[in-house]
Amino acid sequence: MDRLPEECVSKILSCTSPPDACRFSMVSSTLRSAADSDLLWRSFLPSDYCDIVSRALNPLILNSSSSSYKHLFYALCHPLLLDGGTMSFKLDKSSGKKSYILSARELSITWSNDPLYWSWRPVSESRFKEVAELRMVSWLEIRGKIGTRTLTPNASYAVYLVMKTSHREYGLDSAACEVSVAVGNRVQSGRVYLCQKDEKRCKKERLFQREVQDEGIRVPTRREDGWMEIEMGEFFSGEADEELRTSLMEVSYQLKGGLIVEGIEVRPKHDC
Predict the structure, then answer these.
(1) What is the mean pLDDT of residues 226-233?
(2) HEC states along the chain?
């Protein structure tokens, strides 16, 4: 391979993955040059990377004249706020696939503009300017949507509600929420609980957790960024220009409060 032109080597490496390219760069000087080339790393970037960078809150950080495409790729592997800070974007470091978080302001939350039911406030640990906190409702309905053309084509994705509960939480574990993920006429539905029981509580509640798992009802899990998340469903992003629609509903007469919504994340599933 050392005898091949650098452009040919870069083309071959473009069929691998970003981590593989970094490993090849340690094999020989020829591979190092090809593995660090702009030709290769531009192939790992999404085709609309220029549009993504132009929508960033501070695109000048990414447009430095000394930056290479490899530098740009890894810069985009860190969360980047877009569209005035209402959406977060990130590339998956191992595959280069795109993920987005729609902020609470980008979602349709029933009665969210009524301060009797919801409040909007800044939270220091949030990536967004503000989050939505549920004061009290009996009808809980959260919807989000995004065009599949903005995602990586021909990739498997999962959708997550990114949330927390406050110390004033009540009623969130009294009934399971109905969740759905739809693309075109393909719909996946499920059930989730918004509040996971405290492990230090009584044995009866731990038995409840096992029953929930046996019934296939999902519960929140902790994220690396300190928030909690609940999987709402998954889908396959093809090449067609379609709309992804997500929803979470719990509309019993049970009053509930203390849910803090940061947003909905759409991120690629990792191959097993």
Answers:
(1) 96
(2) CCCCCHHHHHHHHCCCCHHHHHHHCCCCHHHHHHHCCHHHHHHHCCCCHHHHHHCECCHHHCCCCCCCHHHHHHHCCCCEEEHHHCEEEEECCCCCCEEEEEEHHHCEECCCCCCCCEEEECCCCCCCCCEEEECCECCEEEEEEEEHHHCCCCEEEEEEEEEEEEEEEECCCCCCEEEEEEECCEEEEEEECCCCCCCCCCHHHHHHHHHHHHCCCECCEECCCCCEEEEEEEEEECCCCCEEEEEEEECCCCCEEEEEEEEEEEEECCCC
